């Protein structure tokens, strides 16, 4: 029987990691210069973990890691740039095996963003320690998206040439991330590497005047970065979730999310299409 997890929507990253000794752990955190990324990195580092903080621009990674100031290595890594990804992976390879990778709430505006993430996570997974390693992937899994819309966006209208709706594509890309995590967990199960996805919540990337006003008001009622960081911190380092894999998480608890997320056939089909596109766009064989 799975152990009960005594944390919820108001828990913070520091709370879920209280008493957890991470002094021998090496953990990668992407988008480390964002609010939630920095909170994850800070909480893990405070418990002794050796952090590798990734940001698209090296200067942003350096600034965020310097602010933490404890056993943190900054690296620039732009998922859309194969050369940048390769350089970052080679730098990490020289540091030793990774105990966990946290893919922190990437901005997925279209299917191309999913492909870039697909390549980056697969390259990082090669460095994750077998037996106890963990991969944690942020995803905004939209429960309202239907199979028809998923198949249209992911397999028929990949480029959005017939119709491009940014809100719809963001939601479908988020579900693609959850499906990717599901299939990756199956593929890495033999190595003993756990893979889980978690709900990011609002990313704040929309920038119209009205949307900025709404976000400024909503900020008073939403979770703080430390609270948003609780679920990925739990999945990356807490012994309470050891051995759990292939799940979707929200508020430090397992969640159903969109029922399509558990469709193994859809997850496998998405992987195959992603691998084919990655081979063409990035020259990666996965």
Give a nutshell description of this structure.
By secondary structure, the chain is an alpha/beta fold. It has helices at 13-16, 35-46, 58-68, 82-93, 111-125, 147-156, 166-188, 209-218, 225-228, 230-237, 264-281; strands at residues 26-29, 50-55, 72-76, 100-103, 134-139, 194-199, 248-250, 253-255.
Biggest sheet details:
8 strands, mixed
- Taken in chain order, the helices and strands follow as HEHEHEHEHEHHEHHHEEH
Share of residues in helices: 40-55%
**Numbering strands along the chain, what is their spatial order in the largest sheet?**
3-2-1-4-5-6-7-8
Class by SSE composition: alpha/beta
- Uncertain segments: 159-168, 203-209
Rounded to the nearest angstrom, the distance between the terminal CA atoms is: 35 Å
Radius of gyration over all CA atoms, rounded:
18 Å
Q: Helical stretch count? A: 11
Q: Would you count the extended β strands for me?
A: 8
Shape: globular
Strand content: 5-15%
Mean pLDDT: 84
């Amino acid at each position: 029987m799975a152990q009960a997890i005594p944390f919820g929507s108001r828990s913070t990253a520091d709370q879920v990691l209280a008493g957890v000794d991470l002094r021998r752990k090496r953990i990668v955190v992407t988008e480390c210069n964002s609010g939630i990324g920095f909170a994850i990195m800070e909480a893990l580092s405070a418990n002794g973990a050796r952090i590798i903080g990734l940001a698209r621009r090296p200067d942003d990674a350096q600034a965020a890691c310097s602010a933490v100031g404890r056993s943190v290595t900054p690296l620039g890594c732009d998922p859309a740039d194969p050369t940048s990804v390769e350089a970052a992976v080679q730098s990490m390879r020289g540091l030793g095996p990774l105990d966990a990778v946290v893919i922190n709430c990437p901005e997925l505006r279209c299917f191309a963003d999913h492909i870039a993430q697909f390549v980056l996570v697969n390259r990082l997974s090669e460095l994750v320690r077998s037996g106890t390693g963990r991969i944690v992937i942020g995803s905004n899994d939209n429960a309202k998206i239907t199979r028809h819309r998923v198949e249209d966006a992911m397999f028929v209208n990949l480029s959005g040439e017939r119709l491009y709706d940014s809100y719809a594509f963001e939601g479908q890309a988020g579900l693609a991330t959850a499906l990717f995590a599901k299939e990756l967990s199956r593929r890495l199960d033999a190595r003993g590497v756990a893979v889980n996805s978690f709900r990011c919540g609002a990313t704040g990337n929309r920038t119209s005047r009205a949307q900025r006003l709404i976000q400024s008001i909503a900020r008073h009622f939403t979770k703080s970065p430390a609270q948003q960081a609780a679920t990925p911190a739990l999945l990356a380092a807490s012994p309470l979730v050891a051995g759990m894999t292939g799940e979707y998480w929200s508020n430090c608890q397992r969640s159903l999310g969109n029922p399509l997320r558990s469709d193994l056939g859809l997850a496998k089909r998405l992987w195959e299409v992603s691998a084919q596109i990655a081979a063409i766009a990035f020259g990666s064989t996965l």
